[in-house]
Amino acid sequence: MKTIDDVFDPARNSLNAIRLLLAASVIVSHSWLVNGLGLPPMVGGTDPGLVAVAGFFAISGYLVTSSRLRASTLRSYLWRRFLRIYPAFIVALVVVAFVLAPLSALIDPSSKVDWGSAGLYVLSNAGLYLRQVTVEHTLINNAFPFVWNVPLWTLFYEAICYLIVGVLVSLVPRRMLGVALVALLAVCTALSMSFHLWPGFMILPILENLASLGSFFCAGALLYIYRTRVPSSGLLVAVAIVLALLLATLGLFKPLAAVAMAYGVLYAGSRLPLTGVGRRNDISYGMYIYGFPTQQLLILVLGGAMLPVWLFAIASVAATIPLAWLSWLGVEKPALRLRRRDRRPDSIRVAP
After folding, report:
1. From 100, 254, 309, 323, which residue has the greatest number of CB atoms within 10 Å?
2. Do residues 189 and 32 touch, judged by C-beta distance below 8 A?
3. First to last CA, the chain
């Protein structure tokens, strides 16, 4: 039977297409929230946005572990990771604070921009940890008022996962790396399950989020480490899908579905005939970081008129595409040119 390594082509795969779909799913999931309709449809507390974020972390775990093992030094690896997420992140903060927030005040004359708050929005969040989500006196009449960019909160945990796998590879012998990742996955799963069963057990929200998101990242990393041993099987992916759905129904997707989710997205990335999507121009990250502010502006442009939520979701995805393209062409792609070349070629073109 063929393994993941046999069927996954690092240079030609469908992971970029899957990430684009996941980013669109996050936008769709938030369509209920920004319209004041509460939470999106869920299965046992699991909504499309949670599944999408889990998929992002699983894919990152696979690709980033590959990147670290191919990097000549920890410094070069961290430099590449920094260039992939941080420049576009900081530009997104500036664009919200000094372009979109003032634009919202022009659309809604009852709003105004507090420039001090706009500056603090950038400075407070510049460390990747989302500490301020508002620009004062803007979006005051929106159904979900004041808040500009909720999805950015996950990037802090993404960066922590990058750092952990980077240091782990530096400290642990290669032959023991799989064992170390299994242990880390077990710890993350145990903590996430503890938080689920006993909410009072949660000491720090940061720890809960890191445990739950880290479990999906670890699962993806493990699939890379054992890619030559894990079969790529239609039967196994069917079992993984059924298991993920069952766990979601039982309200256990977040703490227990990491391996099933990681296997599902990696199988799809290997098998789907979408290798051309995003191969040269990957706008998935831009879709993720600009989707929510675009939706908030769209609410203003519509003047509070309620579109059917499905139509609003489609309009939101379409309206985010231009900003995502600008992010890729103006920030992300130029930043990637600054990466130092490792002595070994970087053959995976879809590394996040």
Report:
1. 254
2. no
3. 29
